[in-house]
Design a protein that fits this description.
Number of domains: 1
Structural class: alpha/beta
Number of strands: 12
Largest sheet: 6 strands, mixed
CATH architecture: 3-Layer(aba) Sandwich
CATH topology: Rossmann fold
Helix content: 25-40%
Strand content: 25-35%
Order of helices and strands: EEEHEEHEHHHEHEHEEHHEE
């Protein structure tokens, strides 16, 4: 088992955000966390990455309490792609190479030949090698998202956590990023947990979904069991029709205007 979430409760100064969260993640799974704004999606991701200490409960990574694993060891196993992460005046290759820092030996200051080869392979996988010498500020939003993923891959993680990787991207880049993540999950056997707002993208790419509402798991399971009109209307408070995508056969949400 890659990850086990047991009775997880998390809070900020404003109050409780997550309450009594329980689920397990097997090796090589590709899971999507969905839910309305403020339901606790990003908070759950932060807790799973070890960045947020729970008030109660625990997160187990490969049967070990994540709170008792050192930062460098954790970073060698879990990579996070989050919003707002950018160093504008750093070259793309320099930014990607930051993913090797958790693997540096004591007193190591510079990248080794192996570090450079791993970074180059990660950029090759994400199609970012072609602009390796450009500044982060000189590439598009879609290209930056690919660079963030390249840096995460350079950590050589077992688990990849992504917080809204398609935000602010046009549909072409959305599909490109999600196709890449799916390929990494399949070909490199990386376990993936991803937060998404777009229900149709979540349904199309993830076999298993976790739907949060008010800091609790409202429903969890196969896409067909989570994406249905009753659930969508109850959680999101909107009128919706759910049909099968005529090509893929997966659930597809159609919004209904009420005015």
């Amino acid at each position: 088992m890659m990850l086990e979430i047991e009775a997880l409760t998390c809070a900020y100064d404003s109050g409780f955000i997550l309450q009594d969260i329980n689920f397990k993640v097997e090796n090589k799974e590709f899971i999507c966390i969905i839910g309305p704004n403020g339901s606790g999606k990003t908070t759950l991701l932060r807790a799973m990455s070890g960045l947020l200490k729970p008030v109660k409960g625990r997160v187990l990574f490969e049967s070990r309490d994540i709170g008792k694993i050192g930062f460098k060891e954790l970073a060698r196993n879990i990579a996070v792609v989050s919003q707002g992460l950018e160093i504008a005046f750093m070259r793309v290759e320099e930014f990607v190479l930051m993913g090797r820092i958790p693997h540096f030996k004591k007193l190591q200051l510079l990248e080794t030949k192996t570090d450079l080869e791993i970074a180059q392979r990660s950029m090759d996988l994400t199609d970012t090698l072609r602009f390796r010498n450009r500044l982060m500020s000189q590439i598009s939003a879609g290209e930056r998202q690919l660079v963030f993923i390249a840096r995460a891959l350079t950590q050589e993680p077992k688990l990849l956590l992504l917080d809204e990787p398609t935000t602010h991207l046009d549909i072409t880049h959305q599909v490109g990023v999600l196709n890449l993540i799916k390929r990494l999950n399949r070909e490199l056997a990386i376990t993936v947990i991803m937060v998404l707002h777009d229900l149709n993208l979540a349904s199309e790419y993830c076999r298993r979904l976790i739907l949060l509402k008010d800091g609790k798991i409202f429903r969890e399971g196969a896409r067909e069991d989570v994406i249905n009109y009753k659930t969508i209307e109850e959680v999101y408070k909107i009128a919706a029709v759910v049909q099968k995508n005529p090509v893929s056969g997966k659930p597809y949400v159609l919004l209904v205007a009420t005015e």
